[in-house]
DNA sequence: GATGAATGAGATTTCATTCAT
DNA sequence: CATGAATGAAATCTCATTCAT
């Protein structure tokens, strides 16, 4: 689909469809959504959908890209990042849990879609890779500074600890395991820090 | 479907369908499988399917139960379990990776199914609960023995570290991250042990 | 579509669809026919159609092949063919007009289909080629016997005179030009014979 | 659609659509053309089309009329027509082949359209009738002059021989039968002339 | 029990045409 | 006049499930 330059109205309609689609996917899952449903939510007729998207799949692809983009954006540890390594890890975990909480269902859908269509697999790998890289480099830096166990493979470790956070987010947010955000961040951070041999800053180690 | 007592032949047919279904689901995913495909694999005619299963979903449910059963079974740390806590963790991780490697695709399908039908959600929760409980109790014991950080919430910790293993298994086996089983088990175990504050047995670092 | 061995009933249904399709195409033209129409005529439900044919086009292809087959068959100048060259031409023309009268609409449809899909073009070329060859060889023989103008290109001539018959058949049968079969065959034959320089047998020139 | 008096600009737009439509139909066939395609070719927006034409069909009708008009015009054997009957036939055949070569695809489309909509049938009959009449009258004149077989039915004969030329044009131009124009005209003319019993002018047989 | 023909609800997609701006 | 967004009536095709033999 060649996206032609759209008028104001066209942009509005397209955006409405995108939003409606995202909501619908979130609520009903990919297969649970019919193009008609999206149209109904967006308040447009059936045919209009195809003015803006080639297919249901194309809509999902766009939603997925938006979600992945948000996940990226939400996890940039900005300039305000704390200097203290432990606090950095805590901040990153908190950000990640929040980003996930906004998009959990859709990312899971994306995982499923990846199972069926490689195109989505690629998107997902990209996403994962960004996080893995970040963790990997963080760990490597700590190792160089003598603050973390130098015998750990940085990539493998980053995958494992990142996976811990991701999977916990899923269990917590999707499967309804009850825990406070504080407790969650605290535990994740303590486990992460200790796992890599980072000496917690004196006075830490409590989730109070 | 009330499973009536089956003749010898009936049992064989049913088993064939079950196996065929499992293979087909594994290969093609739930939606990718048509009842026809299953019948073709099993070498029976289309209509026969409904002699043994109420629906495609019913077949999947049965496959899923079998898989979950195997996951249970495979993870029983038998009487031969090592006494050493660290070795115990290592053994459990190895078993888990192996069990996962046999069933990874189907468990992911089950996760997706749970998204759509609560009935599968229950199965999955049960499965997860077993592992969580096991980890939780293990940790609690270690805490009582003064071998692990007593300030950690046992359940939360078990979920997190268990999630680490599960998610890693997924990344490793399904997403093709390259690593040897040795390295994987070694890292998982070291991270796990250190995360809970278990002093690695002197002279360790390897689980061999 | 792999045509599986069909039961008696299956064969009947398939034949019914084929007949229904042929009738429908004949009456309404390719685009005028919906799969539903064919099913209604055949007295089967919508889905049944796809048990036997992959698509509407596939059905048409089969109808087309049948028609072409009949055209072939109908035009075999059998062993009873007259020895007299003039009478032979007359007999062939009559056969051709009759074959055409049975299939005219469908052959025209096939011509149109060939415009859109090369696959049908091939079928049509085959059909045409058979007739051209036959005419060509007939003429060549006459030329060798000194009965026809030796300076005519046999292929070109066969195409032209064959085209005369075919086009006339179309005008006569499809466009409703009024003429008796006798007059038609008589004129076609006289024109054909004289065009190639065949001396009409003495006492001829009448359509009695 | 009542064609209102158009501004200069309006006329240009309309003409552009007409040309674009003709090209598009020629290239893609009736069904292969979407109104959008025509607009794109003409460089106007979608909605503009309906300012000038009531429907896609109306556009086609106008194109068809233009084509038929050209066929008429192109086949007027002008004042320069040779007096010699044989040469006259040759000239007419040549003109006809050329006219056809310019419009073959569209006339075939018209034939198909006639199949679906009687309105086009009328146009086509008119076209055919003009040629038939011309041939018929030519033959009748020759018969009166004692130059052609008086026993031939003029109309039937004209239809048949005209059909020969038309059908050959189709085979030659549309179906790709290979032949030079010279050979084609020569053969058509010889066959035609001899078929009606016209003694070729002494020294003729070739028009080279 | 087994077979495989029959069913039909439902989903996607196309495109000629209308209409508000 | 021109624009292009919106419409919605078809039409095709899939496949889980039922049922007569």
TrEMBL record, chains A, B, C, D:
<dbReference type="InterPro" id="IPR001647">
    <property type="entry name" value="HTH_TetR"/>
</dbReference>
<protein>
    <submittedName>
        <fullName>TetR/AcrR family transcriptional regulator</fullName>
    </submittedName>
</protein>
<dbReference type="InterPro" id="IPR050109">
    <property type="entry name" value="HTH-type_TetR-like_transc_reg"/>
</dbReference>
<dbReference type="Pfam" id="PF00440">
    <property type="entry name" value="TetR_N"/>
</dbReference>
<dbReference type="InterPro" id="IPR009057">
    <property type="entry name" value="Homeodomain-like_sf"/>
</dbReference>
<keyword id="KW-0238">DNA-binding</keyword>
<keyword id="KW-0805">Transcription regulation</keyword>
<dbReference type="InterPro" id="IPR036271">
    <property type="entry name" value="Tet_transcr_reg_TetR-rel_C_sf"/>
</dbReference>
<feature type="domain" description="HTH tetR-type">
    <location>
        <begin position="11"/>
        <end position="71"/>
    </location>
</feature>
<keyword id="KW-0804">Transcription</keyword>
<feature type="DNA-binding region" description="H-T-H motif">
    <location>
        <begin position="34"/>
        <end position="53"/>
    </location>
</feature>
């Amino acid at each position: 689909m060649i996206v032609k330059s759209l008028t104001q109205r066209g942009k509005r309609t397209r955006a409405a469809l995108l939003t409606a689609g995202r909501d619908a996917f979130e609520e009903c899952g990919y297969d649970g959504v019919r193009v008609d449903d999206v149209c109904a939510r967006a308040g447009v007729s059936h045919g209009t959908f195809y003015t803006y998207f080639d297919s249901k799949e194309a809509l999902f692809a766009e939603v997925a890209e938006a979600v992945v983009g948000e996940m990226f954006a939400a996890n940039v540890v900005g300039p305000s990042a704390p200097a203290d390594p432990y606090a950095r890890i805590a901040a990153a975990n908190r950000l990640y849990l929040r980003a996930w909480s906004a998009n959990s269902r859709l990312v899971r859908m994306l995982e499923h879609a990846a199972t069926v269509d490689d195109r989505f697999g690629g998107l997902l790998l990209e996403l994962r890779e960004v996080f893995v890289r970040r963790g990997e480099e963080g760990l490597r830096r700590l190792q160089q500074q003598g603050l973390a166990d130098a015998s750990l493979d940085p990539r493998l470790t980053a995958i494992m600890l990142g996976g811990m956070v991701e999977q916990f987010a899923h269990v917590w947010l999707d499967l309804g395991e009850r825990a406070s955000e504080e407790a969650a961040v605290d535990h994740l951070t303590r486990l992460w820090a200790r796992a890599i041999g980072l000496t917690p800053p004196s006075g830490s180690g409590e989730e109070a």
